[in-house]
Design a protein that fits this description.
Mean pLDDT: 84
Strand content: 25-35%
Low-confidence stretches: 1-19
Helix content: under 10%
Strand order of the largest sheet: 1-4-10-7-8
Number of strands: 12
């Protein structure tokens, strides 16, 4: 008899585990007195989160933004970047070159659980669809020394360069390497033409490409 009772208890526990899913909905009918009984009537929804296999233990986000972002704020609030996909050069400098207006472009990063280097690379000289490719404008991208958050580095990359230019060194692993921390920040970006005044050009809209890359710190 004891064995039977033990077996029944085990089955009851197992069934309780199996049927622990949310009910999703609940309903009821009026009693004979034409009253609804709302007692102990609840609908439940099971909410699950799978963080196996190290999900979100490490994370990175890098890119271009139209506004600066800073370090992680109070209550561990992660800043949201206003992503920038194109940049217009509108300001003429004293030497006749043209650049983007101040505080219109930034490189930003949000890193968790990894020490990384962030680099940029300018592509080929600017060209225009109005020409077959013989007209080219040299250009450069530069980051300033000041940065919001930790890790920003001043650097300059000129079009046609084969190598990348390191512009951030972000440390997002705690000193004891047991706790992943989040680091975020940004650094101002200036893009300008080079020797435009002495370059022979044709009328047209010119464009080039600036590329960001990320890698583990050496």
């Amino acid at each position: 008899m004891k064995k039977v009772l033990t077996l029944l208890a085990i089955m009851a526990i197992a069934m309780g585990m199996v049927f622990a899913d949310g009910t999703g909905s609940v309903s009821g009918e009026a009693t004979g007195s034409d009253q609804l009984d709302f007692s102990n009537k609840t609908a439940t929804l099971d909410v699950t989160l799978d963080l196996t296999d190290g999900k979100l233990g490490k994370y990175f986000e890098i890119g271009f933004a139209s506004e600066a972002i800073g370090a992680i704020g109070e209550n561990n609030a992660v800043p949201t970047a206003k992503v920038l996909t194109s940049l217009e050069l509108t300001e003429t400098t004293s030497g006749g070159d043209v650049q983007n207006a101040a505080d219109t472009a930034f490189i930003y990063w949000i890193i968790k659980g990894a020490d990384v280097d962030i680099s940029m690379k300018t592509g080929a000289d600017m060209t225009t669809t109005e020409d077959t490719g013989s007209t080219k404008i040299k250009w450069k991208a530069s980051t300033a020394t000041s940065a919001n958050g930790e890790g920003g580095i001043a650097g300059t990359s000129t079009s046609g360069a084969e190598s990348v230019t390191k512009i951030a060194d972000v440390k997002a692993v705690s000193d004891d390497s047991s706790t992943a921390v989040v680091k975020s920040g940004s650094i101002p970006l200036t893009v300008s033409t080079v020797d435009l005044l002495t370059t022979s050009v044709v009328d047209g809209s010119y464009s080039g490409t600036l590329t960001l890359s990320i890698s583990a710190s050496n």
